[in-house]
Amino acid sequence: MWPIAGIVVLLLIVAAFIITGPRLTQVSTTTPLVPGESLKMSEVQYDQDKEGGQGWELVAKEAHFFDTTQIVSLKDVLLTLDSTEDNSYTIRGNEGDYCRKSEEIVLKGRVVGTSKSGYQLETTQLTYKQKEESVVTEKPVKVIGPFFRVKGEGLYIDLKRNRFMVKRNVFTTITGGNVL
Fold it and tell me: How far apart are CA 134 and CA 127, in angstroms?
């Protein structure tokens, strides 16, 4: 009787993990792991909800988990951020890293972000800092809004307050409406 009860409990634990854990559709076993790599996955989707704050969803075509550094290296990444004021942001990058210790997601390559309210962002590297609910970069950046274009170097976005700041060498073009 005890062995059967043990098997039932084990099956319940596995079922709970499958239902509540990150949804992994496929695990790649055809290519060997690189040194230091603990796990390699394909078609990864991971959700992070935070009470009273911002949640996010990460989708990637490929992920490599390195257990010693607690870093997940990603390919073809889509990051969706949901702010507390019913505005969402989607950011795409060719590559990315999710650092579990610092709770930061770094997107690299051609990085393009869009907001539900019509703003667009382009750069080559962008970091989402979960603890601060902010997005930052020191790379050249282009921000396009409904009536303006801004180019510069460096960017800070405060997602709690829905504010952004281009840090250096700023060039702004007003594209619509009366300025004077």
Answer: 8
Contact call for residues 122 and 132 (beta carbons, < 8 A) = no
Query: How confident is residue 69, by pLDDT bands cut at 50, 70 and 90?
Result: confident
Give the pLDDT confidence score for residue 16 in this predicted structure.
Answer: 60
Amino acid 171 reads F
User: Which two tokens mark 134?
Assistant: 């902010």
Name the amino acid, one letter, at 74: L
Compute the distance between CA of residue 116 and CA of residue 120 in angstroms, rounded to an integer: 10
Q: Is 6 exposed, middle or buried (0-12, 13-18, 19+ CB in 10 A)?
A: exposed
Do residues 126 and 91 lie in contact, with contact meaning Cβ atoms separated by under 8 Å? Answer: yes
Beta bridge pairs of residue 78: 59, 92
Q: How far apart are CA 135 and CA 91, in angstroms?
A: 11
Tell me which long-range contacts 147-155 makes (C-beta under 8 A, separation of at least 24): 147/174, 147/175, 147/176, 147/177, 148/172, 148/173, 148/174, 148/175, 149/173, 149/175, 155/121, 155/123, 155/126
